[in-house]
Amino acid sequence: MPFPERVGAFARAAPPVQGHGGVTGGYQQTDAGGGLVVTVQVRPAGEGASLLPALDLGRGDSGALTEAALGRSLAQIRRFYPAATVTPPREVLLVRDGVLRNGRGVTVEYQESLGEAMQAVRLEVIVLCCTARHELVEYRFRHAAGTDSGAAITAFLRGFAWRGAEQP
Known about the structure:
ten-stranded antiparallel beta sheet; 20% helix; 43% strand
C-alpha cells in the first residue's frame, strides 16, 4: 500500500518503515489545527480474512481478526501507559474504494510528560479489515485530550487511499 507524501492537511513525517510483519508510516497535521499525529500500519490479516468484510459486521472471521489485532495494540499501549483509561470497543465502518469495511475502535486517554509538564493525551485506535490483499489497516490518531479532532480524523480516513492494496 502506498504511503503518499500528503493526505489533505497532513504531511508524511518520514518514509514508511517495514518491520514487525507490516509497514508503518506517520503523518503530522500541518494546517492551523496542527496538533494531530497519525500512525498508519498495514499488516497481513492472517487466515480466515473474509472476502466480503462488510457482511461480517464484527461477527465473522474478519471481526475476530480485527478484535484480536485491536487487543494486541491495546496490550502494547498498556505496556507504556499502564494507568491509561480505555473505552469499550466500538464498531467502526468505513467505505473504502466503494466497499464497506468493518472494524473496531477504542479511545485511550493517558498522561504524558512533555518537558517539565504532564499533559493529557487522547489516542484514537481504529483497526479495519480487510484490503483485497487480506491486510489489516490500523490507524492511531494522537492529540491533546480536550481538543475536538473528529473532523480532522474523518478527513484523514477519507483521504488515505488504499489504492495499491486493492491490486492483487
